[in-house]
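Quick sanity check, Zinc metalloprotease:
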Amino acid sequence: MNTVISIVIILGALVFFHELGHLMLAKRAGILCREFAIGFGPKLFAFKKSETTYTVRLLPLGGFVRMAGEDPEGIELKPGYRVGLIFNPEGSVQKIIVNHKEKYDIQKVITVENADLEHRLVITGYENEEAERQSYSVDPQAMYVADHQEMQIAPYNRQFGSKTLMQRTLAIFAGPFMNVLLAFIILMSFSLFQGIPTKEARLGDLAPGEAAVKSGLQKGDRIISVNGDKVSNWEELVSFIQQNPGEKLVFEVDRNGKILTKEVTPGEREINKGTKEGFIGAYPSTEFSLLGSVSYGAKQTWFMTKMIFVGLGELITGKHGFDQLSGPVGIYEYTNKATEGGIPMLMQWAAVLSINLAIFNLLPLPALDGGRLLFLLIEALRGKPIDPQKEGLVHFIGFAFLMLLMLVVTWNDIHKFFIDKIDQ
């Protein structure tokens, strides 16, 4: 249950901040944002604030911000439509009632002759065959009501496509950027909460029941040498331990000025199939500093980003196979392990996931933010946008491909974490 709660909180936060980035920059550009959604599928919860409906949906596999103009609007007033009009105090059309007109306090019913709800914001029509044709100005925030469902009209200047190339680029890029920023904040908070690891070979917290505690080592001990080899920093100490799983090591220790000798046998853990490393259950010593925490957060964010790109490169070059990719099942398993390590490990795992989400979304694949940015780059190079229908088709195909990839990755995870373990 702790794992499930951790996943809901972590993934919910990652998706929320990602979509919040899109929402903030889109609203700043003046784009009408119809919906801010966490998840996909049927709505579980919804409320409306200002122009935007905020929803939580059934399938927790991401989220979206529905901006006006990105998809077909579904607002259409063809000549011959018989509609009801409700006016605001200024005399402009506030609501356009398409059907079920008897349910509303309609002020006028007309037959539409012509309607422009994007540019001129006007409806022309007549009440009956004998009546003169009249034109009615439409409020820029008027509601189009069909089957009791209200949808705010989107004048062209409120649509995604009307904005400058830079405004659209920033609105798309803001999602991944927010995930990187979130990772930085998590790692900075982690260092404020846990302390900044120092480079010296001095022991910090020790895990109960592990080799360090069993051998009599204590928090604050400074390791001078291992098997007679001098140890100058924490990385060298870790290297000695990792390279000798299950082998007895002799530690020379400085404990408050007193030199002691301790025999330590590192435990073993599998890092890859057939590859093991040693560990003793010790963490580095830490120090507390606000400026140091900011620096630590930035450095760790950069390090994690760099390592993810390295792994991605090895995947592309074939050094690692696609069986190394993980999906929802893998995330659940790794989150379960992180949960066992407590809040500090969960925080670091959340930062890793946040950066992964940012980088994955920036890949130049259809249906991802990177794919949309690629189309904007092509628009900048050719001087005009690509046909929205063609772009939409490409994104649809890309989305289908991503769903197929998700199934393959999930099957790999099931093999990796369940079937292969049973076989062993």
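Posting the structure with no commentary besides this: The longest helix spans residues 388-423.
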